[in-house]
Amino acid sequence: MLKQLLFKKEYLLVAASLILVLLCYQLAFKKTIEAWQLNKSLKTQLIQSTDVSYQPEYQERKNNNLEKIIKLYKVDTVDFRSNIISVISAIAAKENVKLIEVPTQELSYHTAHLIVQKLKLEGDYFSLIKALNLLQQTKGIGAVRATSFKETAPRSNNDMAKKLVVEVYLEIAAN
């Protein structure tokens, strides 16, 4: 019987190739197929989790945070000339700085969403820096957009000292 099997090499070849395929499947292909299926399922989970439409709470939190940020810089333009200037002059008085000029509002500074207001403060350098710091920290008066320091000539013969003037541009969100 053994001699008959040895003569039928086709059967041995088929049996050996079946054993080889089973061995390869167990050692390599099985793990590769499992890893591929896991990758596919994780990719579908990732696509579903990054879709914002499945997370309405995220949109609400984002909108609430944006509203808070906008409220910091939003001011009623009618009340700006009275209420906000009084706050700024109180800050200037606290730091021994003079609010010397609040020019009329220039239309060239206005856009559809923003209003830029120009102020001039006079004093020594360190007091002006402290006043600018307080202006930046004060909520509800707008954001300091730009500043420029200038030294002025004496105003009269009695006043021989030169003065330091800072121009402050405040940016306010329009309603």
Task: Give a written overview of the molecule.
It is a single chain. A four-stranded antiparallel beta sheet has the order 1-2-4-3, with helices on one face. The chain is rod-shaped, with a radius of gyration of 38 Å. Helices cover 55% and strands 20% of the residues. It folds into two domains: 10-68; 75-173, Ribosomal protein S6/Translation elongation factor EF1B (Alpha-Beta Plaits, 2-Layer Sandwich), CATH 3.30.70. Helix 4 packs across helix 5. It starts with a helix and ends with a strand. The chain has 175 residues and is of the alpha+beta class. It contains five helices and four strands, in the order ααααββαββ.
How is this fold's topology laid out?
Blueprint (H helix, E strand, L loop, with lengths): L1 H6 L1 H42 L5 H18 L3 H18 L3 E4 L12 E10 L1 H13 L5 E10 L10 E11 L2
Antiparallel strand pairs: 1-2, 2-4, 3-4
In quaternary terms, these chains amount to single chain
CATH fold field value of the largest domain: Alpha-Beta Plaits
User: What is the CATH superfamily label of the largest domain?
Assistant: Ribosomal protein S6/Translation elongation factor EF1B
Task: Using the CA coordinates, give the radius of gyration.
Answer: 38 Å
Mean pLDDT: 79
Query: Number of helix segments?
Result: 5
In short:
The protein has about 180 residues and is α+β, with helices and mostly antiparallel strands. Helix content is about 55%, strand content about 20%.
